[in-house]
């Protein structure tokens, strides 16, 4: 499909989406229009053929699919100013704004039946390895599939019930930091048992990447893969059991729940 895409908000996330879509070959650069108040920072994309503008109205008129990638505090003013530009029979609106519900967005469009998709990517979108959770309203199968195709170029995507978006934020976005902290601890342990920092970093990061790929490509459960490396009276099970005695799994679960409760409270 030769759809035109507008990205309202040329910050880190907006530009990462544009870069990923171009690099994957999903769209031609001229099919993307990205906006920012200060377009000076968008010259790199412009040199690649992407259209840039400081006028959001121009972007909506240009596009078939509009990706809203602004700060949460900007949403109300921007949607209010663009309300008359959105056409329910033309546009699909995709919001990647954290914490802003589909209901809230729909309210600022003045009751128009615009198909709305809420997407929650993570920072790995910058290297086309995001885990993006998607919820939608008023979309048909073709429209939803196109959105999945977009985020499929930028990593993996899954549809969830919107009420799980806070949980998805914890597991898929905060989870990046949790995984990084695990890798950092691995590096520290690696240094203590003899490796230099750079080598420990490489071994730890690639090992975690490989472990994740085993699950993704085989569709297996973590315990199945653990069983393959835990021999009787071996070093792996000794290490795992010591970690469990120290509360390894429990502390991870408590951390996830603490993050979730913080979102719910705020």
Describe the model.
It is a single chain. The protein has 266 residues and is α/β, with parallel strands linked by helices. It has eleven helices and eight strands. It has helices at residues 12-23, 43-47, 56-62, 75-82, 102-107, 141-152, 165-192, 197-218, 222-229, 235-245, 248-265; strands spanning 5-8, 32-35, 51-53, 65-68, 92-95, 116-120, 130-137, 155-159. Strands 3-2-1-4-5-6-7-8 form an eight-stranded mixed beta sheet, with helices on both faces. The longest helix has 28 residues, at 165-192. The radius of gyration is 21 Å and the shape is elongated. 28% of the residues are buried.
Mean pLDDT metric:
95
Major sheet attributes: 8 strands, mixed
Give the count of helical stretches. Answer: 11
Ranges where pLDDT stays below 50 over 5 or more residues in a row are: none
Task: Kindly name the structural category.
Answer: alpha/beta
Portion of residues in beta strands equals 5-15%
Spatial gap, N to C terminus: 40 Å
- From the spread of the alpha carbons, the general shape counts as elongated
Q: Helicity range of the residues?
A: 40-55%
Widest beta sheet: strand line-up: 3-2-1-4-5-6-7-8
Number of strands: 8
Element-level helix/strand string:
EHEHEHEHEHEEHEHHHHH
Rg value: 21 Å
């Amino acid at each position: 499909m030769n759809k035109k895409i507008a990205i309202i908000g040329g910050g880190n996330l907006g530009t990462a989406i544009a870069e990923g879509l171009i690099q994957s070959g999903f769209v031609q650069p001229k099919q993307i229009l990205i906006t920012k108040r200060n377009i000076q920072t968008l010259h790199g994309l412009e040199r690649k053929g992407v259209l840039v503008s400081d006028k959001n109205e121009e972007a909506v008129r240009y596009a078939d699919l509009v990706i809203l990638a602004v700060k949460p505090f900007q949403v109300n003013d921007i949607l209010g100013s663009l309300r008359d530009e959105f056409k329910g029979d033309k546009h699909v609106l995709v919001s990647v704004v954290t914490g802003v519900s589909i209901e809230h967005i729909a309210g600022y469009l003045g009751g128009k039946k615009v198909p709305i998709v809420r997407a929650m990517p993570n920072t790995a979108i910058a290297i086309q390895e995001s885990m993006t959770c998607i919820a939608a309203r008023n979309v048909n199968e073709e429209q939803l599939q196109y959105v999945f195709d977009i985020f499929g170029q930028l990593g993996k995507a899954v549809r969830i019930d919107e009420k799980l978006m806070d949980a998805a934020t914890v597991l898929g976005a905060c989870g990046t930091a949790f995984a990084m902290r695990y890798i950092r601890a691995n590096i520290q342990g690696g240094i203590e048992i003899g490796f230099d920092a750079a080598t420990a970093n490489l071994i730890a990061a690639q090992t975690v990447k490989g472990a994740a790929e085993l699950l993704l490509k085989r569709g297996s459960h973590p315990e199945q893969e653990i069983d393959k490396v835990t021999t009787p009276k071996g070093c792996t099970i000794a290490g795992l059991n010591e970690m469990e005695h120290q509360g390894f799994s429990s502390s991870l679960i408590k951390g996830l729940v603490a993050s979730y409760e913080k979102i719910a409270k705020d």
